[in-house]
UniProtKB/TrEMBL annotation:
The lineage of its organism: Bacteria, Pseudomonadati, Bacteroidota, Chitinophagia, Chitinophagales. It comes from the Bacteria. PROSITE patterns: PROKAR_LIPOPROTEIN. This is AhpC/TSA family protein.
């Protein structure tokens, strides 16, 4: 290995440790974001409605809606697996207006993930596969499981889980 490659690896490792130290000081501050801008609330809800593609029933559109988006090809293994396991564990107890979106760049990627874990395709009316990566394209999710809480056609809160907060964030989503 060249010295430059070793140096690059050391710098990346040090920056990860520094980021973890920051998150340990105040992980909730980094995880939860209130969405105050009315234009952003409307825009995010429109993007969420696009992602759900008619899955929200007309009598639910103005009610409370919670959506958990899991980017299975981009999220860290621990966050992704905890989120998927929680969705599967709670699938029969999803509240009205709660949805889980499993997002990736291609159906093959999604199927490969579940096959590698000896699991069946979990889709139903509340668990939806986003195999065209619409969540990423609409800037709803990047590399972490993300939950949105909506009411009256507006998104009011975004919770972007990290390795420290994922368990607590999932408990909030499923309570």
């Amino acid at each position: 290995m060249s010295n430059k490659l070793i140096l690059l690896i050391c710098i990346l490792f040090a920056s990860c440790i520094r980021q973890q130290d920051y998150e340990k000081k105040d992980p909730r501050k980094k995880s939860t974001e209130a969405i105050g801008d009315q234009h952003q609330q409307d825009s995010l809800f429109k993007n969420i409605a696009t992602l759900l593609d008619g899955k929200i029933k007309p009598d639910e559109i103005g009610d409370s809606i919670a959506i958990l988006i899991i980017p299975i090809d981009a999220a860290c293994d621990a966050c992704r697996d905890k989120a998927i396991d929680s969705v599967l564990e709670h699938r029969s107890k999803f509240k009205k207006g709660h949805f889980a979106i499993i997002s990736a760049n291609g159906l093959k990627t999604i199927k490969a993930y579940f096959t590698s874990r000896n699991m069946q395709d979990p889709t139903d009316d509340r668990i939806i596969l986003d195999h065209q990566n619409v969540a990423f394209k609409e800037q709803l999710v990047y590399i972490r499981p993300t939950a949105y809480y909506c009411y009256d056609r507006k998104a009011y809160k975004r919770v972007t889980s990290n390795s420290i907060t994922v368990k607590e964030d999932l408990q909030l989503f499923f309570e």
